[in-house]
Each structure stands twice: as C-alpha cells, then as structure tokens.
Amino acid sequence: MAPSVPARPFGGSLKWGLRLLSLTVFLVVWEGLGRSLDSLLLPTASETIATLVRLTGTGELWQALWLSNQALVMGYLAALVMAIPLGLAIGRWRKFEKPIDLYLNLFLVTPVSALIPLFIMALGLGTVARAAVVFVFSAPIVAVNTRAGLRGIDPRLIEMARSFLATEMQLWRKVLLPGALPAVISGVRLGLARAISGMVAVELLLISVGLGRLILRYQADFEAASVYAVVLVVLAEAVLLIGLLRLLEKRLSPQGGTEGLQ
Amino acid sequence: MIHIRGLRKVFPGVGHRPATPALEGFDLTVQDEEFVCLLGPSGCGKTTALRILGGLLRWEAGEVLIDGRTVTGPGTDRAMVFQNFALLPWADVLTNVAFGLELRRTPSEGRRQTAKRWLEAVGLDGFESHYPRELSGGMQQRVGLARALAVDPKILLMDEPFGSVDAQTRRVLQEDLVRLQQRDRRTVVFVTHSMEESVRMADRVVLMSPRPGHVVETVDVPFPRPRSAEVRKDTAFVELKEYLWSRLEAMQPPSEREARIR
After folding, report:
1. A167 has a pLDDT exceeding 90
2. Residue B254: per-residue pLDDT
3. What is the Cβ-side half-sphere exposure of residue A93, based on CA atoms within 13 angstroms?
C-alpha cells in the first residue's frame, strides 16, 4: 500500500507558465526602458542578449568562468567539508559550541567583503586567497544551518532512541543525521549562494581576474551591454547550481525537506 | 518485580529558579504481570518516576531495583510508550515499529516479520508503508505501542500514552491494551491523570501527592478479568472513580481550587 500522493493536475505546467510569463514581462519592460532612455549606461535586453551570444563564441568568457570557478569549487567544497561536521559537533555538544559560537556570529553579521583585504595581505593574490574568501562567505551559514538542523530535532525522539538502547553511533545514524538532513541541505544551498557572492566580490574588489575582471574592464570601456551580459552569466550559473542542489535535495528527502533557516 | 524505596529526585535550579524536588520518599512495588496505574495531579512527578524506571534519568537517593538489580540505564527488559508517540517522521510505519529491533541488530528479515506481526496485533496491518503524519493520533500511538511490544519487553512503561487522543479512540485503545497485556502477561506501569482510565485497566491504582511526589494511597481494583466494557456502568466502578476523584481534588493546591470557583 503506497501512501497516496495527491495529484496536482496542471500544477507543474502552471508553475512553468508563470515563470515564463514573469521572465517575458521582465524582458519586455527592460527592452522598453532601454529604448526610451536610450542611455549609454542601460543597454536594451536585445542588445544584452546579442552580446551574450557573441561573448559565448569567444574564449574570453569561458576562460574567465574557468578561472573564477576554480576558487568557487575550492572554497565552497572546503566550506562544506569543514562547516558540516563543525555544525554537527556544536549542535550536539554544548561544550564545543561555547568557544565557537562567538566567531560564527561574528562572521555571520560582519560584511565579509570588509575582510577581503586581510585575506589578500595574508594569502597573496592567488587562487588560494580567492578560495579563502569564498570559504569565509559560505562556511558560517552552512555551519549555522547544520546546527539548527540538529537543534530542531525533537528531543523526545532522542530520548526514545535511548530508551531502546541506541548507542551514540546508532543515534547519529538513525535519528540525528536523518533528522538534521533537510536543514543541512538548505544550509548547503544557502552556502552556495553566498559562495558565488564571495567569488564575484573578491574579483570585483581586489583580485581582478575571471568574471570580475571582465565586468570591470567592460565597465571601464563603457560597454554596458557586455557588463550586463557577464552579470547574466553569473546569474545563470547561480540559478543552474542552485537548481542542481534542489534536485539533489528532492532525491535525498522524499518527504519534501523543510525550508530550514532562510 | 519492580522495587522502589525512598526515591528522591531533585531537578537542579536554572539561573534564579530554585531547584525543584520532584519525588521525595517515593515507594512502589510492582509484581510481575501486574498492571499498575500511577495516578496523580499534574506535575506530581509520575512521569519522572516512570523515566527513572526506564533508565532515562538518574536520581539522588533511594533504591530502584528491577528483579533485584539496580537500574543503571535503559534495558532490554523494558520498553517505553511515549505521550507524544515519538515516531520517526521520516520513516514509514514498518520501519518505526522495527526501530527497537533494528537498534538491537536483529537481521532485517526477522525484524520485518516481527514488526508485521505486531502491526497486525494492534490492528494496523495494511499501513506498513504509511508515514506517521498520514495517521490519526490514535493510529500513531498504536504504532508506538507496536514498537514497544516488538522488542518483547517484560515490563511496559507507558507515559500518559492515550492523553492526546480523543475520547472514543482512547476507550478502544484501552481495551486493546488490556487485551494484549492479558494475553502476553506483561508487567505494565501506566502513568495517567484519568481516574476512569486507571480504574478501567489497572489491577492497582497508585495515588500520588503533588510535588514532591510520593505515594499517598494504593487502591486495589477489585473487578475480575476479563473486564468487559460494561464494567464502566457498574456501581462499584463509578464509586471507585468518584473516590479517586475526591482524593485527587482534596490534593489540589488551594490556589487552583479558588481559581475554579471564580
């Protein structure tokens, strides 16, 4: 007997229809605004898209993407590998939390961009410095969400497991990890969003390489359409990656994960 | 046999709140195969006593013995049923029922069969692959009961298990529990604040005082088994219930009595 799944006729196509509609409206308004202002600083939608197509034909954009994403991958993966276990540990054991909590909050509330110069002074201008910035952007939110996931588990479930003689290991595998999973995954997703911000921020602010360098250069040359096109590329990458994570989230939690901390 | 003598439990104070004595001089003896209800005003420490028996709480003074051995933690001889069901929301009914067996490393096939057998015994066959949120409160508690019975405990510790289900369902659950207890001859310690429930099911009703809880009176329930549902209409049943009610009412702190008059 399978649990009945409520059918949602047209649910999916309606959602996509609305998305398409809002996108169309956005593009039309943009196009109209661009034409009526006729400004050097605001390209029209059609110009931007044409430029985007042209840029994808050149090696320049792809190289920039490659360069930027090296730092993203390194920094983000390091953030996951360190922040998830850290979040789990401080969520479970208060004695770990006390010394770490302060720094976590500090990094969550300070505009991390302000710290970028420090990283460059310490780590130079290479990929490692950029990866470190990406790390600092994304790790705190991943850790905090993971902790919230553990804290959100009903303590009565833990007590129940203990009454059935669960060992600490079994408790983790059967109760704590599955219980925390939805919030951990939304932390992973939010962390990715912040990692992408970090990737672009560092390139715009100090280390001029990759996509950031393209944006700065086109800006300097008053090539507004190109600036917009690169920004679109960044947006597209973010949407694509986060979409992939959502897919992963659905596969991992058939119960439809919770939203976690947004 | 359960043997508790001179039990004292104090919950430590937090911040400005003083320490709370929950149990003081609590004595209780439960024979094998006996069905005992702990009845008392809310906050009298009946749940605390049950959790101590379950090995989930330490105590300050007194002895707590099961079959002559001091309780040092949860054990295979006991299983608990919780007020709020404490089912794993991400696991289906069968997995929930098999949870205790899984923790005891029973091979999966045996686990499955035992769990199915107990699901049938509590009247839930056909619901194996449902999730807890798809079930009513009464059905969820049947799952909780099946989970406890599946590990074949000698002693069943039940913490107001039917407190949050509606009146009709509650009656049916009571009947089913008594039937299963009589069939398998388990010892049951059942915490409740319902006079009716205790008289309907128990061999003995143990009346507790308000905090710090201790036993004020033990009342034998004279009705022979099997008791039909008709027993509720018996004059002796009604009288016993009324007697327990008057004893409980006399124990209410004056403040609550006044609050009710107004």
Report:
1. yes
2. 61
3. 9
Please check whether residue A178 touches B, CB under 8 A: yes
pLDDT, tens digit (0-9, with 9 covering 90-100), for A21-44: 998 999 899 888 888 887 777 888
Average pLDDT on A6-31 reads 81
Q: Reply yes or no on whether the pLDDT at B38 is more than 90.
A: yes
On whether the CB atoms of residues B245 and B41 are closer than 8 A, the answer is no
* DSSP bridge partners of B70: B65
Strand partners, B81: B158
Task: Kindly report whether the peptide bond that precedes residue B226 is cis, defined as omega within 30 degrees of 0.
Answer: yes
Handedness of CA B201, B202, B206, B207 (dihedral sign): positive
Q: Please name the residues in contact with A183: beta carbons below 8 A apart, sequence gap of 6 or more.
A: A145, A146, A148, A149, A152, A258, A260, A261
Chain A, chain B: beta-carbon pairs less than 8 Å apart: 62
Q: Which residues of B touch A (CB under 8 A)?
A: 54-56, 74-76, 78-80, 82, 84, 86, 88-91, 99-100, 102-104, 126-131, 134, 151
* pLDDT at res. A78: 96
B56: pLDDT confidence band, cut at 50, 70 and 90? very high
Structure-token match 């976590």, residue found:
A104
Segment A80-103 shows an average pLDDT of: 90
A179 — contact with chain B (CB < 8 Å)? yes
Is the C-alpha dihedral spanning A202, A208, A210, A215 positive or negative? Answer: positive
pLDDT at B243: 92
Token digits of residue B64: 């707590």
Q: Model pTM?
A: 0.81
| Cα atoms in the Cβ-side hemisphere of radius 13 Å centred on B9 | 27
Is omega for the bond preceding B212 within 30 degrees of 0, making it cis? Answer: yes
Q: Does residue A256 register a pLDDT over 70?
A: no
Contact B139, B162 (CB under 8 A): no
Question: Does A166 lie at the interface with B, CB-CB under 8 angstroms?
Answer: yes
| ipTM beyond cut 0.95 | no
Decide: residue A184, CB within 10 A, 0-12 exposed, 13-18 middle, 19+ buried.
Answer: buried
